Fold this protein.
Amino acid sequence: MEPFGLRLHTKMAACSHLCVGIDPHPSILADWGLADTPENLVFFGRSLIDAAQAGGAAAVKPQSALFERHGSGGIGALEKVLAYGAEVDMLTVLDVKRGDIGSTMRGYAEAYLADGSPLAADAVTLSPYLGFGALRPALELAGRTGRGVFVLAFTSNPEGTAIQRAVTASGLGVGESVIRDVAETNAGAAPMGSVGVVIGATVGSLPPKGAQLITQVNGPILAPGLGAQGGQVEDLGRLFGRARDLVLVTSARTIAGAGPDPERVVAAIRHSAANLSFLGI
Amino acid sequence: MEPFGLRLHTKMAACSHLCVGIDPHPSILADWGLADTPENLVFFGRSLIDAAQAGGAAAVKPQSALFERHGSGGIGALEKVLAYGAEVDMLTVLDVKRGDIGSTMRGYAEAYLADGSPLAADAVTLSPYLGFGALRPALELAGRTGRGVFVLAFTSNPEGTAIQRAVTASGLGVGESVIRDVAETNAGAAPMGSVGVVIGATVGSLPPKGAQLITQVNGPILAPGLGAQGGQVEDLGRLFGRARDLVLVTSARTIAGAGPDPERVVAAIRHSAANLSFLGI
């Protein structure tokens, strides 16, 4: 496969910067008239992929936790959703927030980023509490298989601030150091690298060095939190400045909440995508 | 069920402070003459649980990543290993290092800590990059179902230092703030609380405030890294001081590496457990 960064760049240029979250919470399944079963998780996921395709989204983002609730049956459902995404050429960003060390990290990489793995996605989210360097096995395997990763930097919840804005020995804050490490990894890639960062749409503003570093990130910026979590489209331009053309904006509840009528879901996706293009992203 | 903290305290007093890692790496499976299949992951896990029981370990710690490599089939194998642990009354600490926010964190909590979930373990590991407060849904559900959690503080790998020793606005380091939050959560519990911390056996020493806070943690301390990762039993006494009677020491490769002969695995467990009791833990 071509590198994830190139594939996503092409999709964002041709379609939009919108990523549709696939978050099968019990409450949204009930709103759709669906019992909370693995079979219905597949139906829910496939429906959102079809709508994402029809509405011009660049990617979908299944939330692993909500499949893991059902154990191996839920993971089987997730495999089917990911396979359907691949079948219809919809990019999948699997939100798993994994992070570990050494051979265990290689295990996670093989699970989600290896060719032929039943859970392989186009990209996954990773959590850097054990160090950015500890994630290398995933970055390396993703590089070899044309896949990507998004490393958490600043998340959209208030409880994350204490750790993400703590100051490292280098003088940079923790989240800023993640942006720096991602930028270094992507240096020289064109049109952009395959290693992204996660920065919540609701973080308000980046610290001064973070605002400078984000302009050099040269990789995709996954921004959740728009809509139900309170983020406004207007915040994005201020938050990301001239890096805003690298932003992939996630929206989940606003879109699934328009369902189950497929036409209404497609309309919600078109509306969200148009909001983003109005901003020039 | 009785609270996890009480159950683990009883096991550590009656058996030992040793936790046997269940890490089905391809290389160790090959050493055991096993093909890397879900069926053999079940065999490997059950064999180690039997040996842990016979050798006097307090708990086992399956590593989720190495099951996830096999997709839904691997998760099905993990379910069987966890169910076998429950059947023979062996405490299971599932190493998943999950961490997210809001309803997604509740999804992870339901997957691993709810009664009746196919992946329910006695305790899980959690990663606090999104904030200790974001983990509350898991702490609350664990409290209601008699289960426990272990929150990453200081890990055994060198790449973790930059983030884990970064300084928060409170003046405490990141890892120290995790120990403080855990200590506050466990305050007043007897014989100890059900919220633990993870501190690698190889971290060398804790920062001064961390060394003081760990004496107030009043919950279990999961210490991986002994053996193959280079940690020495002698380090534990120095690292944990008078909190060393709360330490649950994980060993994986040293023990599984003695296999596949069950008697040799049991002997390796007895030897590791005796080393710990020689130190007074």
